[in-house]
Write a structure and sequence with these properties.
Structural class: mainly alpha
Shape: globular
Largest sheet: none
Helix content: over 70%
Order of helices and strands: HHHHHH
Number of strands: 0
Number of helices: 6
Distance between the termini: 32 Å
């Protein structure tokens, strides 16, 4: 019986580890995208569109690959988010003549939908405590970014770049934070489960 519990615990730990890796890689991709946008202030609208589309496609591919590589915690959530990334990335790629205003609206809509899905994932994914709070805060931040993008359609090119870069950086940071804290949470639980039992002293 104990071996069955240990096997189940190891399986759950492996699934959670894959979820952490997917979030961590996507976080790195998001931060890299945000840094590139900040470091390239003179980027053209066409280059920004291609870069944004490539970022979303890369995120989607990472998520789909992790979902089909084997059992992973929250597979349905990962697939849903990845399909959203791929769909928006494809839309951007097949719309090469997109205007700055249209791109802003696309990103705003994406941020709002991503935020809603992220908040839902906070209560669906096998996280608890600080990880759940991070997911909720990340979802709220994403929704707020989307609302700001819809509310500031005439802010100019610099405002557009600043909003996109900030959105990517914040998204990447909370994804990395959840991935790292998730690892600590798993290690703490495993230590608790596999640690020596506490002995009670006779009174």
């Amino acid at each position: 019986m104990d071996s069955l519990f240990e096997e189940a615990g190891q399986m759950a730990g492996t699934q959670l580890k894959k979820l952490r890796w997917a979030l961590g890689i996507n976080g790195i991709l998001s931060i890299a995208f945000g840094v590139i946008v900040i470091a390239w202030p003179g980027i053209s609208l066409f280059a920004l569109t291609i870069l944004f589309g490539a970022w979303l496609l890369a995120r989607g591919i990472v998520g789909i690959a992790s979902a089909i590589s084997g059992s992973v915690a929250g597979r349905g959530w990962i697939v849903f988010v990845s399909l959203l990334d791929i769909a928006v990335g494809v839309i951007v790629f097949v719309w090469p003549g997109i205007s700055a205003l249209a791109l802003l609206y696309v990103i705003g809509a994406y941020a709002i939908v991503l935020g809603i899905i992220t908040i839902g994932g906070a209560f669906w994914l096998p996280f608890s405590g600080g990880d759940t709070v991070l997911l909720v805060l990340g979802g709220i931040a994403s929704i707020l970014f989307g609302i700001v993008m819809f509310a500031m359609p005439s802010g100019g090119a610099l405002v557009l770049l600043a909003l996109i870069a900030a959105f990517a950086l914040v998204t990447g940071l909370w994804e990395l934070a959840v991935a790292i804290d998730g690892k600590r949470m798993l290690e703490k639980r495993m230590n608790r489960a596999l640690g020596p039992p506490k002995t009670q002293t006779a009174s």
